[in-house]
Amino acid sequence: MSHQFEVVVIGSGPAGYVAAIKAAQLGKKTAIVEKWLKEDGETTWGGTCLNVGCIPSKALLYSSELYAEAVHGFDTHGIIVNAPKIDVPKMLARKDGIVSQLTSGVAGLLKGNGVTRFEGKGQLKANKVVEVIGADGSIELLEAENVILAMGSIPVEIPPTPTDGDVIVDSTGALEFSEVPKRLGVIGAGVIGLELGSVWARLGSEVVVLEAMDKFLAAADGAIAKDAFKSFTKDQGLDIRLGARVTGSERKGKKVEVTFQDADGEKKEIFDKLVVAVGRRPYTQGCLSDDSGVKLDERGFIFVDEQCRTTVPGVYAVGDVVRGPMLAHKGSEEGIMVAEIIAGHNAQMNYDAVPNVIYTHPEIAWVGKTEEELKAEGIDYKSGAFPFAAIGRAMAANHTTGQVKILADAKTDRVLGMHIFGAGASEMIAQGVIALEFASSAEDLQLTCFAHPTMSEAVHEAALAIDNKAIHKMNRKKR
After folding, report:
1. Any binding-site annotation on 326?
2. Where is the Pyridine nucleotide-disulphide oxidoreductase dimerisation domain (predicted)?
3. What is the CATH number of domain 2-155+281-349?
4. Tag placement on the chain: N or C end, fewer CB within 10 Å?
5. Which position among 77, 399, 452, 472 bears the catalytic label?
């Protein structure tokens, strides 16, 4: 059976469903295709982010943060409780309930905006025809004026440690442990590895993180990464081993023995569970027919221009299947941009103002250039930093770890980057995003009135510190 649409979206993650809703709101006859089935055989909407990524991991992070606070932090506030216990099944049930509520919400939003939903695997064929193969083998053809590819990504697997869904798992499996592992190994000290390692460490696991790179969080600003490494290892007890390249693994009954190489030679460690979190790769398998005309780049991403056009006129790609950071909010903004372009609007996206967040505790967030990038590019800059230890609200909340760091152009005073390590960094970084989006100067932030007492006062003071004007710390002596 054949159907005709002005816009067909393949994939219902944050990039896909947002694109479909926006296209429908702009008056386009829109359809969306999703293949993801729940255990009960029903289609679930929202992609990796809602089902096994951003949302469930944050639910567990918050639950584990509260547990850790009860165990280690209540006494500081004068709150005396009996030894807290963690009910892992109940924690997981809460997480699953949140996921169900949000995925059902996406389905409702698609329906409410008039987007036609098709359940099955979508494949783009020649002439912008999308074939949808249902779970029962049924086939439907969607003829589209425009196609938006938003299939998302899947975890990267490495030959030395193939996952088995039991003892050796990927990021999805790490969200489903029925009990707290006594000893947990994590391969990869990136965003996913740190977040998942933090969850189970707070709940009582002895966590060892094996990272092949010699530098911790190479994408982050060096000063922020240094602060974070110290906090995670010395204060929180994560055993993060840099320069540790995993070379093999072997099941030992209900445990796994991992072999790795570091500066001292070959070593082995035994874990109750092992999480492979070495990154994600674009999911395009079976989604593009040979005659579709869509080209991939050398890394397997769909090749697109700055406005997400592929090599086929009328076919766009957004989210994790294209270049740039694999971030839900980045994909959503690309989806909106493409929908507006299809509707005839002149839409652009500012890729220089996309925030990055790692939801550990404290959180790590940044936007714009790092100090290392500015040095490499030969840009003359000035910087200012301010510690949360000198912020009254941080003291009251017992969240004094970390700092805010702001970088600005030495000649124009334009804000070039903001970097935060501290409680609530994911919320505060929006101030940096707005500053970059509106080409603000450091002086703009200096002249802004920040509420007191708030954590955000650290942003104000960091901006003041750029020009040696900080009020609540001693400034550098002028030469």
Report:
1. yes
2. 354-463
3. 3.50.50.60
4. C
5. 452
Per-residue pLDDT for 446 more than 70? yes
Is 324 annotated as ligand-binding? no
Kindly provide the residue ranges of all beta strands, DSSP E only, lying in 236-375, ordered along the sequence. 239-242, 245-252, 255-262, 265-271, 273-276, 280-282, 315-317, 356-358, 363-368
401, 362 Cβ separation under 8 angstroms: yes
Contact present, 34 and 117 (Cβ < 8 Å) = yes
Is the pLDDT at 479 greater than 90? The verdict is no
Check whether the bond before 387 is cis (ω within 30° of 0): no
Q: Which is it for the CA torsion 18, 19, 24, 30, positive or negative?
A: negative
* CATH code linked to domain 168-278: 3.50.50.60
Average pLDDT of every residue of the chain: 97
Determine if residue 329 is labeled as part of a ligand binding site: yes
Q: For the chain, where do the domains classified as CATH 3.50.50.60 start and end?
A: 2-155+281-349, 168-278
- What is the number of other CB atoms lying within 10 angstroms of the CB of residue 193? 24
Asked whether residue 38 is marked as a ligand-binding residue, the answer is no
Q: Which two tokens stand for residue 31?
A: 């359809």
pTM score, two decimals? Answer: 0.96
Q: Is 372 known as a binding-site position? A: no
Residue 211, annotated as binding a ligand: yes
Tell me the residue type at 247: T
Q: What is the pLDDT, as a whole number, of residue 272?
A: 98
Query: Is 452 among the catalytic positions?
Result: yes
Q: Is the peptide bond before 56 cis (omega within 30 degrees of 0)?
A: no
The annotation status of 188 as a binding-site residue, yes or no, is yes
3-class SS shares of the chain: helix, strand, coil, % to 5? 35, 25, 40
What is the C-alpha separation between 443 and 448, in angstroms, rounded?
9
User: How far apart are alpha carbons 228 and 208 in whole angstroms?
Assistant: 16
Three-state SS sequence of 344-391: CCCCCCCHHHCCEEECCCCEEEEEECCHHHHHHCCCCEEEEEEEHHHC
